[in-house]
Design a protein that fits this description.
Elements: E1 3-9, H1 16-27, E2 33-38, H2 53-63, E3 70-73, H3 85-94, E4 101-107, H4 110-113, H5 120-126, E5 129-132, H6 139-153, E6 157-159, H7 169-177, H8 188-197, H9 203-206, H10 211-224, H11 230-250, H12 254-263, H13 272-282, H14 294-306, H15 311-318, H16 329-340, H17 349-358, H18 360-377, H19 384-392
């Protein structure tokens, strides 16, 4: 028999309080393995902007990567629609042996919320609870509520004796947005990821956007996850967020910028022959070559599999690798966002980023000059579309 301790959470960001809880449960005599479940679209947080699921999943992975007997699950974030605990438990137990046991690990604040969940009786009757003190709930109040649940639902509830680290993810996010010191609150690997990708760099403005847009993007991200490796997926999310920031700066449609940014590389990790096939179907023979075909192939895939019919979005995806001689503001924005999103590290990036805040055409000029200089160094030919863009932007050879 294997006893699994299930710890669920948004992990936005994954902090030292989360890690301490995982360590304590992992060391418990009553638990053999820990499952860290990254929350999907939660029914009670529909009006709250939550960071992209793949960011949160990767933070959790890095936060426990050095711990044994801990598995991070993406089951909920891969599920379509809202995630309810009862659905997650039913799905988990399908893959367990009959004599395995699943123990639910929560903070003491959940004791007061649980009766309002979907099918609380089924949850409490079937699964024991292991409760950690947290959320500002006094132990006596938690014990009283636990006894009430025992009486009402025949719940099996026990309390952890280890002290937890009481941290607020909301407060830490505020510190990250404000660029305040935070490394003492977050595991080193997570802090390094946050800094490298500037995960909360634009949250002061992005949190003002319509929650329905974030829900739409979460659905697209769920469809995108199986198509990309981790590095390319994080890059795509970076481009999406940076594109949204630039769209707000320049009065460009934020929804279109977000979708084009998220999906611009959707064909990047497919088999080479598939990418070339999709590029041919897109009808642009100028881009049917290995290094460039994922642009038109991505536009084809975005239309066929993601249901994107907006010609501006599809065009921005199509030309994001080369540019062209007649670029729309959205084309410019996606090209620039792809080249200089926060995790990019090549030379002269800061100058391009500074230009992008006020003049997308100038940022595009600087990007094209850098790309052309690279091609010269590598003794590779320039693409006709890029040369047309240089000419259109009055860049002297």
């Amino acid at each position: 028999m294997t006893r699994y301790g299930l710890i669920g959470g948004t992990f936005d960001p994954f902090h030292n309080g989360h890690r301490r809880l995982v360590e304590a449960v992992n060391a418990s005599d009553g638990i053999d393995r820990v499952i860290l479940m990254v929350a999907g679209q939660q029914p009670h947080k529909t009006r709250v902007k939550v960071s992209a699921a793949s960011y949160r999943f990767e933070m959790a992975v890095r936060g426990v990567s050095d711990l044994e007997n801990v598995t991070v699950s993406d089951m909920e974030i891969n599920r379509k629609g809202r995630s309810f605990t009862i659905d997650t438990l039913n799905e988990l137990t399908k893959n367990m042996s009959d004599d395995d046991q699943l123990i639910l690990v929560y903070g003491s604040d959940v004791l007061f919320d649980l009766p309002n969940w979907r099918e609380p009786a089924a949850i409490l009757l079937r699964y024991p609870l292991l409760i950690a003190a947290r959320g500002g709930i006094a132990r006596q109040a938690a014990e009283i509520q636990a006894e009430k649940l025992r009486c009402d639902y025949q719940a099996r509830i026990s309390f952890m004796e280890q002290d937890m680290i009481e941290l607020s993810a909301t407060s830490i996010r505020d510190m990250l947005v404000a660029k305040q010191p935070h490394s003492h609150l977050i595991p080193d690997r997570v802090a390094a990821m946050i800094e490298h990708h500037d995960l909360y760099g634009y949250d002061d403005e992005l949190t003002t956007l319509d929650p329905e847009l974030w829900g739409l993007l979460a659905d697209y991200e769920r469809q995108l996850r199986p198509l990309l490796n981790t590095k390319r997926l994080l890059h795509s999310l970076n481009v999406m967020r940076y594109a949204m920031h630039l769209a707000m700066r320049h009065g460009i449609d934020v929804k279109k910028a977000a979708i084009a940014g998220l999906l611009h590389d959707c064909a990047k990790c497919l088999e080479a022959h598939t990418v070339l096939h999709y590029a041919r179907l897109a009808g642009d023979p100028q881009l049917v070559e290995a290094a460039l075909a994922h642009g038109p192939a991505g536009a084809y895939l975005a239309k066929r599999d993601f249901g994107i019919n907006d010609t501006e979005i599809l065009r921005a995806i199509h030309f994001h690798t080369t540019g062209n001689g007649d670029m729309s503001p959205l084309d410019l924005l996606i090209y620039v966002a792809d080249k200089v999103e926060p995790a990019r590290t090549y030379n002269n990036l800061e100058g391009i980023r500074i230009a992008a805040e006020n003049d997308l055409e100038q940022a595009m000029r600087l990007c094209l000059v850098e790309v052309e200089a690279f091609l010269v160094r590598e003794q590779k030919p320039s693409h006709p579309y890029a040369l047309a863009a240089l000419k259109k932007l009055n860049v002297v050879e």
